[in-house]
Task: inverse folding
C-alpha cells in the first residue's frame, strides 16, 4: 500500500486543530533524557533507550536509502525480539506503514497478504525460514535484496540485519507525518481467501496511546509482553509503553513459569494477557512462591475473562485487573475495573471515554436497554477501512439515526440498567435450534461450573429434528474423572428447556489461536463437512450421530 490512506474515509470523530506528536519524533528525546533507562529486555539481549534509538534510526535511514517512500508498507514475519521492536519503530520513524505478519498463517496466505499491502521490504526471523521458502517464489515484486533476516544467521533468507544496516547513520531524522497517514496494517485471521488488512492511521494510534497512559502505561511502566507483535492485543499495551519511554520485557514464546520468573526478576508493573494465559499462570504449581508485588495492573482482552478466574487472580495476584473489550477495527471500546465492580465480573464493563455502544436487531433497528442484539460502536479510534476492500468496509458500517458511522461487532450482547455491557456470543456462532436462539456462552458457563471441567466450548452441529443442536466439547481437569453422560445431565439441570446440550464429547485439548481464542470454526468443520452451514436466518436438515436432548 502506498499513500492509499488519504483516499479512505475518516469514520472516527474529528477534532478541529487536533495536534499530534508522532511516535517517531517523540522517542528521539529519550536518547538523552532516558539514555540509560532500559527500553527493551529479552532473553537474547537488551537495549537501553540510547541503544534502541541508535538502532531505530539506523533502520529508518537505511530504509530510506534503499528506496522506501512515504507511506510504503514494510512487513515482518518474526517472533518477539529486541530487533523486531527496533524495526517497528524504525519503519514508523522513516514514515513507512508497518505490517506485522503471523507465523501461524499458511505460505499461500502470507503471499496474498504481502501482495495485498504492496510490501516494499520483508524482514524474517530464522524461525520462519522454512515458511518463507513456501511463498518466496511468488514474491515477484519483492527483490531478494529487500528480504532481510532479523537474526545473525541469514541462511535461506538473505543478508542479516546487521550486514544490511552496514554503516547506516544513527542520526535522528524522523519523517513528518499527519493524523491521516498509515501507521500499521493488521491482518485479520481467515480460513479462505486473503484475510482483511485493517488499516490504522496515526489518529487511531495516537489517541489510543494517550488513553492507555491513564492505566499507568507510561515512563515508569515495566510491561511484560507475552503475546505476539502481529496481534493488536499486543500493540494496545506495547505502543503506549514505548511512546512514554517505559520498559518492555519481551517473550519470544509464552511459558507460564518463565512468565512468573521474568515478572519477579524485572519487577513487572503491567501485562496484557488473554484469558487462557491467566488460567495457565494461576495453575502453575509454584505460583504463590513468586514475588509479584511489582504489579500495578493486569489487562485482559481477546475474550471475556471468567468470573472465577478473576476472583482467583484478585485474591492471589497483586494489582488490579482491567478487562478491555474492543475490535481490532476500533469503534467499540469498553473497560471493566475489576476492583471497583466485583458485582459486574460477568460483563466487559462500560464504554471508555469518547466511546458509545448501542444494540441493534437483524434489521438494523436500535433496541432498548436490556434487549439482546448485535453490539455496534463508535469511538475516538476507528480504522480507516479494510485495504483494497471498500465493499467489505461498507458492510462493517451501521449508520445511526443521527447519521454517525458505527462499526458492527458481530457480537451478540446486551446493556444492563447500569450501562454495563454483556457479551453473549459471536453472531456467527449463535446456535438456532428448533427456532430458538441459543447463546453458547450460557451453556459454556454451565459446563465450566462443573468441578471436573477445565475447559469447554459449545458448537452447533447438524440435527435432523432441530436444524442444529448444541454439542459440548470439554477438557477435564488433571486428575479428575468424570463421565460425559454425568456432566451432561449435571449441566442440563442448570439450563433452561430450550438450551439443553444434546451431547458431550471429551477432548484432550481445544484448538486455540496464538492469542488464546478457541477456534470454533475448526471444531465445527468435521460435523458440517459437505454441508452449507447455517446463516442467522436458516437451518439445515442433516443426520445426527449422537443422542438428542428431550422435549
Result:
Amino acid at each position: 500500500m502506498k499513500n492509499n490512506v488519504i483516499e479512505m474515509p475518516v469514520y472516527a470523530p474529528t477534532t478541529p486543530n487536533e495536534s499530534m506528536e508522532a511516535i517517531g519524533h517523540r522517542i528521539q528525546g529519550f536518547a538523552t533524557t532516558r539514555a540509560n533507562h532500559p527500553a527493551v529486555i529479552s532473553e537474547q539481549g537488551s537495549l537501553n533507550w540510547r541503544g534502541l534509538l541508535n538502532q531505530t534510526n539506523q533502520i529508518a535511514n537505511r530504509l530510506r536509502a534503499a528506496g522506501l517512500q512515504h507511506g510504503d508498507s514494510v512487513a515482518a514475519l518474526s517472533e518477539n525480539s529486541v530487533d523486531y521492536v527496533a524495526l517497528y519503530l524504525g519503519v514508523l520513524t522513516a514514515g513507512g506503514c508497518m505490517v506485522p505478519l503471523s507465523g501461524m498463517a499458511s505460505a499461500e496466505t502470507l503471499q496474498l497478504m504481502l501482495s495485498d499491502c504492496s510490501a516494499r521490504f520483508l524482514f524474517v526471523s530464522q524461525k520462519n525460514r522454512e515458511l518463507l521458502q513456501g511463498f518466496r517464489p511468488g514474491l515477484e515484486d519483492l527483490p531478494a535484496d529487500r528480504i532481510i533476516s532479523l537474526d545473525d544467521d541469514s541462511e535461506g533468507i538473505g543478508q542479516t540485519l546487521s550486514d544490511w544496516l552496514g554503516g547506516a547513520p544513527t542520526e535522528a531524522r524522523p519523517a513528518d507525518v499527519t493524523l491521516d497517514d498509515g501507521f500499521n496494517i493488521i491482518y485479520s485471521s481467515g480460513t479462505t481467501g486473503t484475510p482483511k488488512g485493517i488499516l490504522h492511521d496515526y489518529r487511531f494510534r495516537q489517541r489510543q496511546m494517550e488513553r492507555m497512559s491513564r492505566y499507568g502505561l507510561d515512563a515508569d511502566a515495566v510491561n511484560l509482553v507475552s503475546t505476539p507483535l502481529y496481534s493488536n492485543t499486543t500493540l494496545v499495551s506495547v505502543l503506549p509503553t514505548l511512546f512514554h519511554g517505559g520498559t518492555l520485557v519481551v517473550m519470544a514464546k509464552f511459558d507460564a513459569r518463565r512468565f512468573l520468573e521474568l515478572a519477579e526478576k524485572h519487577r513487572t508493573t503491567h501485562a496484557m494477557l488473554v484469558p487462557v494465559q491467566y488460567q495457565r499462570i494461576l495453575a502453575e504449581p509454584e505460583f504463590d512462591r513468586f514475588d509479584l508485588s511489582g504489579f500495578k495492573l493486569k489487562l485482559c482482552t481477546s475474550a471475556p475473562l471468567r468470573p472465577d478466574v478473576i476472583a482467583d487472580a484478585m485474591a492471589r495476584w497483586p494489582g488490579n485487573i482491567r478487562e478491555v473489550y474492543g475490535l481490532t477495527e476500533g469503534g467499540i471500546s469498553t473497560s471493566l475495573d475489576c476492583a471497583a465492580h466485583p458485582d459486574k465480573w460477568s460483563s466487559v464493563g462500560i464504554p471508555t471515554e469518547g466511546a458509545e455502544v448501542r444494540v441493534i436487531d437483524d434489521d438494523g433497528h436500535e433496541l432498548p436497554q436490556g434487549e439482546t442484539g448485535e453490539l455496534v460502536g463508535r469511538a475516538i479510534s476507528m480504522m480507516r477501512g479494510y485495504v483494497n476492500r471498500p465493499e467489505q468496509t461498507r458492510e462493517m458500517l451501521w449508520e445511526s439515526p443521527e447519521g454517525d458511522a458505527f462499526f458492527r461487532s458481530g457480537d451478540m450482547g446486551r446493556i444492563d440498567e447500569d450501562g454495563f455491557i454483556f457479551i453473549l456470543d459471536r453472531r456467527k456462532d449463535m446456535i438456532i435450534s428448533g427456532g430458538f436462539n441459543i447463546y453458547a456462552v450460557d451453556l459454556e458457563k454451565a459446563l465450566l461450573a462443573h468441578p471436573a471441567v477445565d475447559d469447554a466450548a459449545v458448537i452447533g452441529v447438524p440435527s435432523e429434528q432441530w436444524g442444529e443442536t448444541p454439542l459440548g466439547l470439554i477438557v477435564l481437569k488433571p486428575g479428575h474423572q468424570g463421565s460425559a453422560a454425568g456432566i451432561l445431565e449435571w449441566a442440563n439441570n442448570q439450563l433452561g428447556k430450550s438450551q439443553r446440550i444434546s451431547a458431550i464429547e471429551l477432548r484432550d485439548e481445544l484448538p486455540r489461536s496464538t492469542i488464546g481464542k478457541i477456534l470454533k470454526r475448526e471444531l465445527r468443520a468435521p460435523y458440517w463437512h459437505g454441508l452449507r452451514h447455517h446463516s442467522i436466518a436458516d437451518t439445515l436438515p442433516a443426520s445426527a450421530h449422537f443422542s438428542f436432548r428431550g422435549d
